[in-house]
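FORM 7B: Structural annotation worksheet

SECTION A. Query
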Amino acid sequence: MASVRVCGIDDLEENQAARFVVDGVAIAVVKDAAGDIFAIGDTCTHGDISLAEGFVEDDTLECWAHGSKFSLHTGKPLTLPAYEPVPVYRVELVDGGVHIDPAVTLTV
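SECTION B. Predicted structure
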């Protein structure tokens, strides 16, 4: 599957996460304060909680339910109770749009 346009770059609010479902895969997309855009798996590995409802701080996305923080770069949990990483997806910016291929995950 090729990458899919999920939204426009300008549709994303700074330091906020937005949830998109691409080909059945839930993905949290974040634009940080520097304008960089990240895409990680939307489901916390500690519980079945949407990370897009959480809090963006620096280069992390924090689960609102139990406080686990996940790196936007690697998907690795930086705080307990989560100990399993979430997938990280490659983001392509094309003609003002944010494109993601849910079949392609990045390994760091």
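SECTION C. Observations
The beta strands are 4-8, 16-22, 25-31, 37-41, 55-57, 60-62, 69-71, 88-94, 97-105. The chain has one domain: 4-105.

SECTION D. Sign-off
Analyst initials: ____
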